[in-house]
Every structure is written in C-alpha cells, then in structure tokens.
Amino acid sequence: MTKIKITVNGNEIEINENSTIADFINERQVTGKMFAIEKNLEIINKDRYGTEVIKNGDVLEIVGFFGGG
User: Fold this and answer.
1) CA 16 from centre of chain
2) Residue 51's CB: how many other CB atoms inside 10 A?
3) Fold observed for domain 3-64
4) Predicted TM-score of the model (pTM)
5) Which residues pair with 56 in a beta bridge?
6) Neighbours of 65 (CB within 10 A)
7) Interval 4-44: pLDDT, tens
8) DSSP helix, strand, coil percent of the chain (3-state; round to 5)
9) What pLDDT, in 10s, does the model give residues 40-69?
10) Helical ranges in 1-69 per DSSP H
C-alpha cells in the first residue's frame, strides 16, 4: 500500500494513502469523546470523519478538551 506524508500536531508522519479521518483515529487509537480535529485550518465535523480523505501534505491538529475545577 502506498504511504503519504502528513503533519499531525507539528510532527511529520506517514499513513496509508486514501485514509479517512476515521481510519486515522482508529489506527492511531485516538480515544475519548472530547477532542476536535482540524485539517488544513478547517475544523472537521464528526459526521464527516468517515468520508473526509486525508491527502499527501495535509496538516492535522488534534485538540483535546479537559474539564476541571
């Protein structure tokens, strides 16, 4: 399978070509319900994770939310 290079939270990594955001989340075991994913400066709605394909050179930012008091 062909690999592509993307940047995730400032780190360059390789993933399988034609991966969706949902594929990426599953492969990288991103857990929890309180996180957002930004792709190329656009926040991606969770209902698009299964169809939003990651392309070579894309930049992802994964931001988690934490509560406290």
Assistant:
1) 13
2) 9
3) Ubiquitin-like (UB roll) (3.10.20)
4) 0.88
5) none
6) 9
7) 999 999 999 999 999 999 999 999 888 777 899 999 999 99
8) 15, 40, 45
9) 999 999 999 999 999 999 999 999 877 666
10) 21-28
